Amino acid sequence: LRLEWVVGILSIIVLFVPILIGALLPELEEWKRVVICFSGFIPAFVGFFYTVRIEQIAGYYECKHCGHKYVPTLKAVTMAMHMGRTRYMRCPECHKKSWQKKVLTGENKLDRG
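RE: above sequence
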C-alpha cells in the first residue's frame, strides 16, 4: 500500500503545480493561465482513480456482523464513507452495513465480487 501513498502524493503535486504556475505568471493572457491551471486535473484524477483501485484490491474487508471476508467492488470502495483504511460498507453476504477495517493478511480464498 506504499504505492498508493506514492501515487496519491504525486497526484496532488500534479494537481497543484499547474495551479501555482498559472496563478504566479501574471504576464500571460487570462485564458492561457486558466488552461494551465486546469491542465493538472485530468492526470490528477487518473492518479486518484488508481489509488482507490489499489485500496480495493490490496487485502480484504471483514464484516463485523457475520465475519464474511470479501474484496468489495470499486463502486463500493469509492462511494463508502471512510476514515483511513476503515470504510462503512454493506456486506455482500448478510447485507448489513458496518465499519469494516482493511485486512492485509489472511486467506487467499476470497469472494472477488
